[in-house]
């Protein structure tokens, strides 16, 4: 290994120029990638001889290509070893997953620079992002059922509730009147099917983290008027950041080995859906479009106007992909946006933005909209692109540190990034009400409050609220976990006239509290504040120590 390190240092100096002499960011990125590949190659002793010969006989490009080939070969061998640790159905499923991973890994090694050149970015043409009002103004057909019977609702259900202190799938957290995210989704679709006498199915894309628990819960919906299908997204191996080889030693999910696997982002939906056989099954049933959204976005309900717009287009001009976008606020500056790039509508994520342009990307004045991840996609188009191997999505390299301190990377893709692959893609600028994600207990407080009313699984803003925007709520670390949050509220406060709420420290709320305007409550370390039952706080700052004891 010492000889390897000396060889690495020697050839790094000989072949790689000083980074400061490289003019463009693309050159600098390519240089860094080359040196990373170079370093990774030399963690494997078996590569030493062949690579040293390659450097002696050829130039840098040939050397890079040899390194890539060697890394792919090593990865292939390691994956085969993993497959040999199991048999039967698990081996076949994993083999199919690994084919997808090898394709992603190959593309990862081929990347030579930034996925976008900033100078080529253009604003989308006006007709490529339509206002929702224009779509809705066309009205609905007499027979809405015909459109609905061509639709499938797909919910992304791969995430756990760990960030909110809950075990198991996030979709099983109670969010309103003891109803979970999944309960509300089923109620929404059942209401459509009963109202219009239709057969809109629900499809859940689970991950290996959520599949078992979700399937147990699905039994409770047996008598609901909704057909529910599931399929699993892939299971990919986490890769050692230094060697670029899998960290797992077998396919089991037990003990420390469980850390070696990950679900590769929601961009995996296309391949997993296709591989499951469910895509073909739904097409055979006459389904034409899927409406995809995150299961924790309570604003993502089936919109009949958008659906009608899709199915009413002439066959030759059928829109194959609609992305719902909405106006950006200062809270959304990191959200992906739509751009025109090389003649195609394309999703630009903050991870793709060169550091020098991050502030420009976050600007509300230049990039005015962001992606809600509510997507309407043609089923036949997914089938066509999968069979042509033409689904091209930018790779997201997500660095992680395992519990033992080992640095790994996981390669992911985002479902919206495929917009550039579809014909006649369109953005629709929808009302903010269609983006109501619940990522934290601060979000949970909003949806549990009287700001919203619940009917047939759908939340709508109360007509008593004078402003169309939701209040800005920021709860401190004492409220992070759902169980702790629930203990701190005897009942959810009246928030109809609230603009801003910040709570920090050991704070509890009694029954029938009313919050109006801007309210800031701060209990310093060691202090506790109990907001008395029946209190009305309007434009107030509360700090110090306020304790109410039972007697």
Automatic annotation (TrEMBL):
Residues at which UTP binds: 170, 233, 265, 296, 439
Pathway(s) annotated for this protein in UniProt: Glycan biosynthesis; glycogen biosynthesis
InterPro entries, A to Z: Nucleotide-diphossugar_trans, UDPGP_fam, UDPGP_trans
Enzyme class: transferase
CDD domains according to UniProt: UGPase_euk
A GO biological-process term: glycogen biosynthetic process
GO molecular function, one term: UTP:glucose-1-phosphate uridylyltransferase activity
Keywords: Nucleotidyltransferase, Transferase
Enzyme Commission designation: 2.7.7.9
Binding locations of substrate: 266
A Pfam family that the UniProt record links to this protein: UDPGP
Domain of life: Eukaryota
Substrates-to-products reaction catalysed: alpha-D-glucose 1-phosphate + UTP + H(+) = UDP-alpha-D-glucose + diphosphate
Entry's family note: Belongs to the UDPGP type 1 family.
Record's subunit section: Homooctamer.
Summary of the function given for this chain in its UniProt record: UTP--glucose-1-phosphate uridylyltransferase catalyzing the conversion of glucose-1-phosphate into UDP-glucose, a crucial precursor for the production of glycogen.
Protein name as catalogued: UTP--glucose-1-phosphate uridylyltransferase
Species the sequence originates in: Oreochromis aureus (Israeli tilapia)
Gene for this chain: ugp2b
């Amino acid at each position: 290994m010492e000889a390897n390190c000396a060889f690495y240092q020697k050839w790094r100096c000989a072949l790689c120029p000083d980074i400061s002499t490289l003019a463009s960011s693309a050159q600098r990125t390519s240089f860094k990638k080359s040196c990373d590949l170079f370093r990774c190659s030399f963690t494997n002793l078996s590569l030493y001889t062949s690579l040293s010969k390659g450097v002696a006989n050829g130039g840098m490009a040939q050397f890079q290509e040899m390194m890539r080939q060697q890394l792919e070969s090593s990865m292939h061998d390691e994956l085969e070893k993993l497959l040999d640790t199991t048999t039967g159905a698990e081996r076949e499923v994993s083999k199919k997953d690994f084919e997808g991973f090898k394709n992603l890994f190959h593309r990862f090694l081929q990347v030579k620079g930034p996925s976008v050149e900033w100078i080529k970015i253009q604003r989308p043409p006006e007709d490529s992002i339509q206002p929702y009002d224009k779509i809705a103004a066309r009205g609905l057909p007499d027979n809405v059922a015909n459109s609905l019977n061509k639709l499938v609702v797909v919910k992304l259900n791969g995430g756990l509730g760990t960030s909110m202190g809950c075990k198991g799938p996030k979709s099983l957290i109670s969010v309103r009147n003891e109803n979970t995210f999944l309960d509300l989704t089923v109620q929404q679709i059942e209401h459509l099917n009963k109202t219009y006498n239709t057969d809109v199915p629900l499809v859940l894309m689970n991950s290996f983290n959520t599949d078992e628990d979700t399937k147990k819960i699905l039994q409770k919906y047996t008598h609901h008027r909704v057909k529910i299908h599931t399929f699993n997204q892939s299971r990919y191996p986490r890769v050692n950041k230094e060697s670029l080889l899998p960290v797992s030693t077998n396919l089991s999910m037990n003990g420390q080995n469980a850390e070696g696997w990950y679900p590769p982002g929601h961009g995996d939906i296309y391949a997993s859906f296709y591989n499951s056989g469910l895509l073909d099954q739904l097409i055979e049933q006459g389904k034409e479009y899927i409406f995809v959204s995150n299961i924790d976005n309570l604003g993502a309900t089936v919109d009949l106007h958008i659906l009608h717009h899709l199915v009413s287009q002439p066959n030759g001009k059928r829109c194959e992909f609609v992305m719902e976008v909405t106006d950006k606020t200062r809270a959304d500056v990191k959200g992906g946006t739509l751009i025109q790039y090389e003649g195609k509508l394309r999703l630009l994520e903050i991870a793709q933005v060169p550091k020098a342009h991050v502030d420009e990307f976050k600007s509300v004045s230049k990039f005015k909209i962001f992606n809600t991840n509510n997507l309407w996609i043609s089923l036949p188009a997914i089938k066509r692109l999968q069979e042509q191997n033409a689904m091209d999505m930018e790779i997201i390299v997500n660095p992680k540190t395992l519990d033992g301190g080992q640095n790994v990377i996981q390669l992911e893709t985002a479902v919206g990034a495929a917009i550039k692959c579809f014909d006649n893609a369109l953005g629709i600028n929808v009302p903010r009400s269609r983006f109501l994600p619940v990522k934290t207990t601060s979000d949970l407080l909003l949806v549990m409050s009287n700001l919203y009313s619940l009917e047939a699984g759908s939340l709508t803003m109360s007509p008593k609220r004078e402003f169309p925007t939701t209040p800005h709520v920021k709860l401190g670390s004492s409220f992070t976990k759902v169980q702790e949050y629930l203990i701190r509220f005897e009942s959810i406060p009246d928030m109809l006239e609230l603009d801003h709420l910040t709570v920090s420290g050991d704070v509890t709320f009694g029954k029938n509290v009313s919050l109006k305007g801007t309210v800031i409550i701060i209990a310093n370390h060691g202090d506790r504040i109990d907001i008395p039952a029946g209190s009305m706080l309007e434009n107030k700052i509360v700090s110090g120590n306020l304790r109410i004891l039972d007697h």
